Amino acid sequence: MINRDLSNASNLLKATSSIVLPALPFSENALEPAISAKTISFHYGKHHKGYVDNLTKLIAGTDYSDLSLEKLITSTHDRMEKKAIFNNASQIWNHNFYWNSLREKGGGAIPPELKTLIDSSFGSVAECKKALAEAALTQFGSGWAWLIIDGAQLKVTNTINAESPLTTKMKPLLTIDVWEHAYYLDYQNRRVEYVNALLDNLINWDFALQNLN
Ligand code: MN3
Questions:
Q1: Distance, CA 208 to ligand 1 centroid (Å)?
Q2: Cα(113) to centroid(ligand 1), Å
Q3: How far apart are the CA of 7 and the centre of ligand 1, in A?
Q4: Mind listing the pLDDT tens digit for each residue in 18-48?
Q5: What does DSSP assign to residue 111?
Q6: Domains assigned to the chain
Q7: Ligand 1 centroid to residue 47 C-alpha, Å
Q8: Any idea what DSSP says for residue 32?
Q9: What's the gap in Å between 88 CA and the centre of ligand 1?
């Protein structure tokens, strides 16, 4: 009886090991005033956590329960019957990536190695930020704006709903969440103000450089 209990506990750990809600890389009020603690509290504690809870239930006891988050995303993409798994898994990954794309007192100096690549790809940092803002503002409805590397070139793209560059050959470096839940408490419908505040004050260029290497 004891052995059986231990075995169940071990299976439970294994089944849930890849699907977790990671700790935020900053305190909930660290991004104020650009993003309020209230927004972070709901966004992380309700939305992000909700995707983790949903996915945990969706894959419990199935062949998917042992897969990594990345593998769940790539193996369910474009499979209508697995849409719920894809949406929740991809939203978890996108949010993990989004929190790391931001930091307190971000948006400042860009590491030289990244800046060289930005200059050669966009002409200037200002043009790169303009392209990111445009991708964020032209995403109709919910979705994400991304700085990505495609071959040797940096580019900007956007994705709808839970979609992600992970299902393409493009490698993501940074992301901006443009679902309304990311900004509505602070900016209501003014997505442009949220995007500009984020680009000027919160973008974590060091994280982009890490993803480049
Ligand atoms: Mn979100």
A1: 19
A2: 30
A3: 36
A4: 799 999 999 999 999 999 999 999 999 999 9
A5: P
A6: 11-29+36-100 (1.10.287.990), 112-212 (3.55.40.20)
A7: 7
A8: T
A9: 11
